[in-house]
Hints:
199 residues, mainly alpha, three-stranded antiparallel sheet, extended
Amino acid sequence: MQWxxxxxxxxxxxxxxxxxxxxxxxxxxxxxxxxxxxxxxxxIGIAVSGVFAVFMLFAVHQLHYSDVGGWPMDALLFxxxxxxxxxxxxxxxxxIVVRRxxxxxxxxxxxRFLGRLTIGVGCGLxxxxxxIFILAQVxxxxxxxxxxxxxxxxxxxxxxFLLAAFxxxxxxxxxxxxxGLAAVLCVAAVLANGFVMGA
Length: 199
């Protein structure tokens, strides 16, 4: 791409430092390598950029909290979230499996660490999600810092499962008991909701 000479009167700049001068409603920047003054953004450009930034923030907020589209949009976002998680986890697992030698004892330390980390993050997250639902049902509504306790319980449970993935005797065994515990916690979350709601 050929650089076009700016249509401004050249001014020689002999200083190697960065030079900037503000002259309302414009901002002038010195291009030190070529010695020319380049006009900065105008007030109209700044206003347009601000309006665009506010619009994008509003649009991202609506999509993030699924305030538009009703249940079809909720279902679509749920499917995309699950698909994204599956792609990340399966890609990580395939990367580890392809590089794993026939003898597990010859597996590099980094690969073993990534394998355990994948178990703790993936399976541990599945097991920790029901914890926040259980806490949301059993904690009193008028409890001080109730939200903090819910979120803290979730991260504590996730940390415990992550640590257990590294302390377990076998990665395969760690996957089995974490997913099994996740199933038990999901059932417990449903039972806790029924008990609180009086069903």
